[in-house]
Amino acid sequence: MGDELGYAGRILLALLLGGLIGVEREASGHPAGFRTHIMVALGAALFGIVSVDGFHRFVTERAETNVQVDVTRVASQVVVGIGFLGAGTIVRHRGSVRGLTTAASLWVTCAVGLAVGVAAYGPAVITTLAVLLSLVVLRFPGAWISDRIAARTRTVSIQVAAGSDPGQVAAALHEQPRVRVRSLSIRQSREGTATIEVDVRPLPGADLDAVLADLSERDDIDEIEVS
What we know:
The protein is of the alpha+beta class and 227 residues long. It is 58% helix and 17% strand. The chain is built from 9 helices and 6 strands. The protein has a 4-stranded antiparallel beta sheet, covered by helices on one side. Strands 1-2 form a two-stranded antiparallel sheet. Strand 4 and strand 5 (194-202) form a beta hairpin. The N and C termini lie far apart (54 Å). The mean pLDDT is 76.
């Protein structure tokens, strides 16, 4: 009975730690969120329990027979298998790669669950706190570095007013000294309106929102969206 309660405690701790990481991903609107991270942590914890405590009978017989058991193989296969799940969250869209952080969080959550499963509670808790620190607290300096130094490429969708020339809008965007246009496409509709899809990269220190705000004051632009 004592062992069963110990196993239950490990499973619940894995649920808690995996859920804490998943909450941040869920709040950020990522596809692999709260429940996905809980499932990963629970599965890894159970695999860890099986890896450590599921082969005692074979281990005790090993000295008297030719049976050889590597109890670490279950855990190693968990590490390999989680890569397939993480790869499913990574997508390439318009020249950029998305989902890398979510894939990494799933990978770390698997490690946390596995650590709980083998009763390495301290490292599991410390790792969870470190992950939350990286995802939540370091998001703000990361955004500052990206805006001020890295200047990430952003996708902008511009709705051109009916009857207006989208070429003039595209030319006005090219003339902006604070941004660099990476790619641009124009899609016309039967109603006479046009949509401009453009990838722009603000120069270091430039405020893309301010640039687009100035551009949105033009009479030939109905709406601007940034993704």
